[in-house]
UniProtKB/TrEMBL annotation:
Residues in Thioredoxin domain copies: 1-87
Family annotation (SUPFAM superfamilies): Thioredoxin-like (SSF52833)
Species name: Candidatus Falkowbacteria bacterium RIFOXYD2_FULL_34_120
PROSITE patterns assigned: THIOREDOXIN_2
Protein name: Thioredoxin domain-containing protein
Amino acid sequence: MKIIKVGAIWCKECLVMKPMWVEIEKEIPELNTEYFDFDMDNDKIKKYEIKNVPSFIFLDKEGQEFLRLNGVQNKDDLIKIIKDNIDK
């Protein structure tokens, strides 16, 4: 599983989520994440059809999207989703 995180420096919700993701990534070191900036990574934004920030796209081992979350998320909920799907 891989998680694509999309944010922007002007996004207040993104600033809330950033330290939370740092904590999650420390707790689950095998987690594979990648960050894209909404204003700078235009090719990725178009590829994944990002309309809102923050956005979190969960991909399986084949690179197929199986979940997309937008906005501020609860840390415990994210950890549960990750642990339930880490082997996808």
